[in-house]
Design brief:
This protein is 34% helix and 17% strand. It is α/β, with parallel strands linked by helices. It folds into 2 domains: 140 residues, Aspartate Aminotransferase, domain 1 (Alpha-Beta Complex), CATH 3.90.1150.10; 158 residues, Type I PLP-dependent aspartate aminotransferase-like (Major domain) (Aspartate Aminotransferase, domain 2, 3-Layer(aba) Sandwich).
Length: 337
Amino acid sequence: MTNRQDDPCGPGKFLAPTRSINIRTEIPGPKSRALSERYQAHTGAQPEIVIASAHGARMIDVDNNVYIDFASGTAVGHTHERVVAAVQRQVEVADSLPPNAWQQNYDVHLQLTELLGAICPLPAPKQIALTSPDAAKRFLHLVREQMIVIRCDDGIMTPFPEPVHGAIIDETQIGIGRTGRLFAFEHFNIQPAAVAIKITDDVCAVIADSAVLPEPLHSSRINPVAAAAALETLNIILDQRLATRAMQISDIVGERLDQLTSKNPLIIHRRGIGALHAFYLHRRSHWDFVTLARDNGLLLTTHAMGEYIPLLYPLMIPEEQLHEGLDMLQYLLEDVH
């Protein structure tokens, strides 16, 4: 195990070694299989690998196999030192909401709300509601019948030739900063009435132009510990200028995928915005390719319908690990026939 100090991608992650991927067993390994069977007995679901820990852009399963994460979409990486410290501080102060408290009533909620209001380019006055991902989905479903909802699906949007006014922008699939701007709609000729944005897997926010959407927004119950993690994540995104980092990653990944697609007509590179890239494979199951990558130490995911494979690495991924993951991807894609 490498030292967790002096990490090139920021505090709280392992020092990026020359080679991070380390597959020690068949996949899934014996411990993962045993735990998966126990899990299936209780839930009916059967995960193929069971993760023991995750740090930065690396995930380690219970069999001590080490993977590079191109799937989770986390901005600051796993178990970032600042996020861990913020969660620990919050747990020592308050770790639950009072009974029947539907509005956020801790200082951490106010800090997160004020920071979102300061960075969102919608005109003042703004309404801001902190929500769970499920509550954000319900909001978008309710307003869909009355207003245009434009969804940023894995960050891949079509530019609009004419200005779009009064739309609701759904950015809950991609997260803040990943497109090279804090908000994806800033790339386009859009003046939205509201935007729904993912901050972490547990916390979203709906931010609205009060002049266009006068009905009051309602926050859902957000645990103060989850709010503390979201607040510190957002501060890291701003402090480390991860939106700018997304554009740097875009250049690296785009060039590599363009080279691959020029050599193999079975691969189609779908260029997104900023750090968002995806690809299609002709005449081959995307699910099978994701499994093949996992067995070789690269964690990928697919679009919900299996239509394409997005690349969702942490924005703070060390460049050595980014290139290692891309090398593995290239190795696997060059074998696609």
